[in-house]
Amino acid sequence: MKEMKIAKNELVSFLDSLISEYKVFAPVKRDGFVVFQEIYSGSEALLVYANSKKPPKEILFPQSEVLFTYRLGGEGLGIEEPTFKDKQMVIFGIRPCDAKSLVILDDIFNSQVYKDVYYIAKREKTLVIAIGCNRPSSTCFCTSLGGGPFSPDGSDLLLVDIDHEYVVQAVTEKGKQFLKKHSEFKKVEEHSLSLMRSVIETAGVLIKSKVETGEIKKKLDVMFDDPFWDWLHEKCLDCAVCTYLCPTCHCFDITDEALDQRGERVRIWDSCAFPMFTLEASGVNPRPTSKERTRQRIMHKFKYFVDNHDMAACVGCGRCIKECPVNLDIRTVLNSILNR
Amino acid sequence: MKNPYLPLAMRTEKIVIETDDKNIKTFSLSFLNEEDESSFNYLPGQFVQLSVLSEGEAPFGIASSPTQPGELEFTVNKIGVLTTALHNLEKGAIIGIRGPLGNCFPIEAFEGKNIVIVSGGFAFTTLRSLLKYILYEENRSKFGNVTVIYGARRPGLLLYKDELKEWEVRPDLDVHLTVDRADDGWRGKVGVVPNVIKEVAPSPENAYTVVCGPPIMIKLTLPVLRQLGFPPERIILSLEMKMKCGIGMCGRCNIGNKYVCKDGPIFTLAHLNELSGEYKPGGRNFETKK
Known about the structure:
Number of helices of chain A: 12
Largest sheet of chain B: 7 strands, mixed
Number of strands of chain A: 11
Helix content of chain B: 10-25%
Number of domains of chain B: 2
Structural class of chain B: alpha/beta
Largest sheet of chain A: 7 strands, mixed
Order of helices and strands of chain B: EEHEEEHEHEHEHEEHEHEEEEH
Shape of chain A: globular
Distance between the termini of chain B: 48 Å
Low-confidence stretches of chain B: 280-290
Structural class of chain A: alpha/beta
Oligomer: heterodimer
Order of helices and strands of chain A: EHEEHEEEHHEEEHHHHHEEHHH
């Protein structure tokens, strides 16, 4: 991996130059929360932050997305097809856990048989610039899921903050080409590289939460009927915040919104925590209570997804731990499963 | 890259009221564009998503057979928002269609075999597709004996009444119709489907059985078929679940690690028994594992 560097005081002007060419998304503070939004000036980007409240998955998989529009009452269906003319995009400042979630989402939306053109059109035009985590939070457990505060998975470029400058690692060929194109990136000295190594090492030690997730699937393989699920859900409120804020959760609903002659078919995030998620018109619901729904969430992330994709649908970002109103901590859940 | 979410346009050519309570109708549709028709290739057992724009989309098994080119048929029970919207449509209405989706009945494996079709209520739709496919002149000789055991709560709720009459008199088809409660003109059997299977006792020798019906029928039918000697590998079921995307992405129709939309809707009982996951009705497995 070839490293370069960029001085911190040049970052804002670098982002400004990107904005003229790309649609740039970066963490910003809005209403007291950190979220990823399109920025129109380099100075808007927040450079010191733990992680965003909402995962940046919504850049590629929006919470609400129009699939197509239509006009009623004319010839045929009157559908106006989408054109996918998005600009090239840069996601700047994404954390390595969230960058890794893009690898997981790629496997779902760019499957072998079916192609989700809405996701793929945006994804193909996106360059991912991650900033590693010098100071991981107490809820972070990325290292338990094959990631780490400086894991390169899913990023094209990875930035390491070494105080006065960032060391930049080109992870993909796309990242390498990008580095070549931009003169703001300079040759890096050995001194900076050794600082980078020590930052990476320190951050790894700061992640205290450890779950032996390698054993989880084997346990879950035979746990569908385990009495564990009878009590696990008891304090769950079915609020679904864990799934809405999860960078890998990808369940959605498709619905029509029409007024007079104009209508839209819209895809919106949905959640396995909601009773309506699987409720059929006949009144039958295969997951009628919180027990089945909680089991589905855990099983999907740590067994079914592993069966189908050879990886867990969790990156250890800790959002579900931070935001759960009843402190249903996924690390505790996983450790309880291991102890069964 | 093909956009899997865009529906194709079809015109409603004919609407037939199937049942005396008028709650089930069969829609015959034809493609508006010829290219769409030639690119839509399906086999019995597959389903589609039907759209009534402004109301939404829902999955329906294809009730017609690919041996009747130019038209697609869907039998719709009026039970929710979209099915009500469909029932309110008149001849000539334009309907959106996405598909074909899901897998089909294992037709190649069926060749040279005797086929026992078991169905109850309005679940007969994709089995009608299969039956029409098998009975098609050029196909019939590829399959062995065909037995149909089909029941409804009362005679007025049986689907495809005109076709049933034709099928009953066909020499190459063994049809057993049954109802829970007979009326004056009823000449078929009286009793629930599992009891009629016991009475008919189809031989499992060189045979596949295909079962589609309400959860309670499935639950009571499977032990009877097992008793008769049908192995789980040759008991074929068609499942349904709430679906949105139909292509394995929206995340709601899974049973264990399989998606009913993408990996199904057709499964063998042997396959289902291997999966951990929720099956209807309420309980876990169709068949208790020993």
